[in-house]
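We examine the record.
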Amino acid sequence: MPFDTLRHALGPELAPWLLALPLLVLTAALAEGLVQTFVTLAAALRLGWTGKLTGTGLFFAPLVWLGFSPAAVFAALGINLLYQFWLHAPWLPRLGALEWVLNTPTHHKVHHASNAEYLDCNYGGVLIVFDRLFGTFVDLRDDVPPRYGLTTPLRTHNPLRIAMHEWVNLARDLRQAEGGRARLAMVFGPPGGRTSAPPPTVRIEEAGP
């Protein structure tokens, strides 16, 4: 089925998320790498350790079931991770036609940005085409320079708090949600899935440098 047909059938809200893991849980793990209010090559080394709690490894298990060797799967994941190192070089210019296919430093600056115009976008590791297909791509605007950080700036250097603060926020948001349906919408839906309260704090928005 062509992607446009699939996207139309699922609707603009559901399509990007139906094929993804529970997003708020993943965002809780991702937040460790987005705490900093600047982007440098060193930021690429800031990998959170709580991601192992999300079960993301299960996402790649079907590749092994389909016949790919575990070594090939791990090699692909390693290459994907290594590729993302140079994406944290914000001084690099746009790369012409490659910007349509590959994730580039320009696209990744938008992913890290905290501006309201740049929230929840550019999730790709190596390729940017899937963000374009599923409506999560946002291009860098000349009139909106990116600013980095979380919705609520984290004023601490405590590594345990940095690692766990979004998990605490997620637990609080789930506890305050009204009913099981609202909780399911928060975990399995797009960011801001709460229906009777403000969006959960795991969204990324403006925070000054």
Q: What stands out?
A: Residues 1-23, 31-35, 194-209 have pLDDT under 50 and may be disordered. The CA atoms of residues 15 and 118 lie 19 Å apart. The radius of gyration is 17 Å.
